[in-house]
Design goal:
441 residues; 5-stranded antiparallel beta sheet; 38% helix; Aspartate Aminotransferase, domain 2; PyrdxlP-dep_Trfase_small (chains A, B); homodimer; alpha/beta; Aminotrans_3_PPA_site (chains A, B); Aspartate Aminotransferase, domain 1; 16 strands; 7-stranded mixed beta sheet
């Protein structure tokens, strides 16, 4: 594990068990791309092709992708490929000219949101979306103070990296940022929701005590990097109320939990009976085409919009909108939110059934096709076992099944298959999981 | 003009001379996208199709595009469309897996740079590229202080907007930012280079006087928003030396001036006999596909890379690289840098020839196909004439020729045709220019 950079499942320099071609490509990468890039796995993968839930390496070995949250409707979905190819041949220009498709798409998206949310703005990445949302929130509140969970990831711009503690101890948090413990129902049980709300309240109070006016509370809809905390439903409400009471707005970061991923609705926050002030989205929005955005209550952006025009060269261009429209068509047309709920529950039940024979499985949780499996060395004490977690992640890679891990203690399996995952895919996953568990037992 | 947001050529609310369809779409845009978006022109354009140097509105009227700096090798270039369509059907995943094409492309790009620059990192937008470059520069120098020109535009992230004064007076500059006057050879003559270097030196001294350690000097290779200042060649060197003497690094922002635009070489800075510490690039890199990047001297990123891993979900994905590779193939294969030099000179001569009869043309300048034409009300006093500039820009739009304007005083025509502009296109431009000039005379 690369603790210093906070990254779980990173390839380590100096690994010996690599074939010459892989070793050579890693060296070439280092020479050309420099030292900041990281690869997954003890033995990194060289992938050349993708189709549906499958990825293929240079020898055409098939890997079951149970991790990639971008190509959420399946790698190279033909409807998205066609939409991109067609529109790229017609027009790809920017929002300083009028174009119809961006309006139709914005309208469709806004129709999936609570009525209070009325405008849609477009960026290219989730990082940019959070960066813009924070600018708007700070302009609206006149404050700077930000409260996040302690292993949150919200993005990579300078502003957003300052409130993305999962980037590791070497990336400084801003002086205007406070962290709160993750809403860990596994360890806190019924006290969790009250604890979480109290922590958010205290964090804003501490900001004020230091002369920093509150601006925003931001969390993603499934606490993706904190360890996948999905429930109980509604637990988020107290924290959001605490933020509002402090004069802050609530940004729902749906970059990972959005677009049907959590199985109940298109957006993760909808499981919690809360209405966000801003909603950010990205990753799966274009199934690989860079497109992202911010949905916002009109009153928040009124003054900002008048005073500080927003323009993003590629954000909302006609090709991005074509890709995003095709993705939404497929999610709705093929019932993928429902599939995520159904197959997610099936997969979760399957993993839970393994817990009896395998005491390392401390907890199985999640919503839809976003699952977390807590790996522990002592089930009674709930002791995180990062080493066993790494063995499972890398063991599954040897079984040609791709997942990763998360949480502050690096011991939660992060399982995030495409929304097109079938029951057969789930069975394939579980069979590989059995083989790996048998080896580490 | 929308002075409050610093935007030249913005559509103004309340314009009356609009057809009902345009009016309805503008209303719908406002309702759905909110108040932060701006349109070009007194009469905004609804564009539906593009091909080469031409854009087409919903009635299939053709507009000669002499402005769009993204689709630099022509709208919908078939080789780029094909590259995107093909790769989107094969694989679009991220840099946490090994892939060959990103390495081949990085190698090609680095071969176009000075030897000192050794690594290439990928983002989606020029804003992200500048955001990352600043993070690296600040980490390397241990300083925060930034010096920019007074009407610079470097991007839209929170961090980058703090040193993009062209966003207007309502977007605060950071307390760690100092501005210097643009290198205006038209008004300063032979003193300009020395003035510019002295201003940069003084700005860094002022930062130090306020306890702010210098981090970086950033400028684009053609001073695109400041008013298009191309020469004399080499004038940048003194300013770069002053930055280095202050302990700061020099970021060459090639988002607008890169990829052959300035006609002499692939990069704008190469006209000035300077070696940047970081080079950022974007807009035309994928001819519309969102792809951007940072080239950097290895020593700058060594510690940053070890401590603060960099990952960008879409940055450097295989489709982005395929688009960017096709663009570079076309620029090199079709000799577009040379074409920019040749047609740019022809166009500049043509405009200069009009100056005799039209005293409003105060100065004609630029490099390659990035031209600036200074519009003045008094040629001797060089008095900026923003009103006449707006009349020309909107007059050309009525003639179905697209350009825009820039500079602190909003009086410089910004003419930036695609690199595939032909002599015939230049003649079409000049004919329309004549008709507009005749009307305002």
């Amino acid at each position: 594990m690369n603790i210093d950079t906070g990254m779980v499942n990173a390839f380590q320099e100096g690994a010996t068990d690599l074939d010459p071609e892989t070793r050579e490509m890693i060296e070439r990468r280092k020479a050309l791309l420099g030292p900041a890039y990281r690869l997954f796995y003890d033995k990194p993968l060289h992938l050349v092709r993708g189709e549906g839930a499958w990825l293929f390496d240079q020898e055409d070995n098939a890997y079951l992708d149970a991790y990639n949250n971008v190509t959420s409707i399946g790698h190279c979905h033909p409807k998205v490929v066609e939409a991109i190819a067609t529109q790229a041949g017609i027009l790809a220009t920017n929002t300083r000219y009028i174009h119809g498709s961006i309006l139709d798409y914005a309208e469709r998206l806004l129709n999936t949101m609570p009525d209070e949310i009325g405008h849609m703005m477009f960026t290219c990445t989730g990082s940019d979306a959070n960066d813009l949302a924070v600018r708007i929130a700070q302009a609206y509140t006149g404050g700077l103070g930000i409260v996040v969970t302690e292993t949150a990831y919200h993005g990579i711009t300078q502003s957003v990296s300052e409130f993305s503690p999962s980037l590791g101890a070497n990336v400084d948090l801003g002086p205007h940022v406070r962290t709160v413990p993750a809403p860990d129902a596994y360890r806190q049980g019924e006290d969790m929701a009250a604890n979480f709300a109290a922590a958010v309240e205290a964090a804003f109070a501490d900001l004020k005590r230091h002369g920093i006016k509150p601006a925003l509370f931001i969390c993603d809809g499934i606490f993706a990097s904190d360890g996948v905390f999905d429930g109980p439903r509604g637990f988020l409400k107290g924290a959001v109320d605490a933020a509002h009471a402090a004069g802050a707005v609530y940004i729902a970061d749906e970059v990972q939990s959005g677009f049907g991923r959590t199985g109940d609705a298109l957006w993760g926050f909808q499981r919690h009976d809360v209405v966000p002030d801003l909603v950010t989205m990205g990753k799966p929005m274009g199934n690989g085409y860079p497109v992202a955005g911010v949905a916002v209550r009109p009153e928040l952006v009124e003054e900002f919009g008048r005073k500080a025009r927003y323009f993003n060269t590629f954000g909302g261009n006609a090709v991005a909108i074509a890709a995003a429209t095709a993705v939404l068509d497929v999610i709705e047309g093929e019932g993928l939110t429902e599939n995520a709920r159904e197959i997610g529950a099936y997969l979760q039940d399957g993993i839970r059934a393994r817990a009896e024979a395998h005491p390392c499985i401390g907890d199985v949780r999640g919503a839809g096709l976003f699952l977390g499996v807590e790996i522990v060395s002592d089930r009674a004490a709930k002791t995180p076992d990062a080493a066993a977690t790494s063995v499972i992640v890398n063991g599954l890679r040897e079984e040609r099944v791709l997942i990763s891990a998360c949480s502050k203690t690096h011991n939660v399996l992060k399982i995030r298959p495409p929304l097109v995952f079938t029951r057969e895919n789930a069975d394939q996953f579980l069979a590989a999981f059995d083989r790996v568990l048998a080896r580490i037992k």
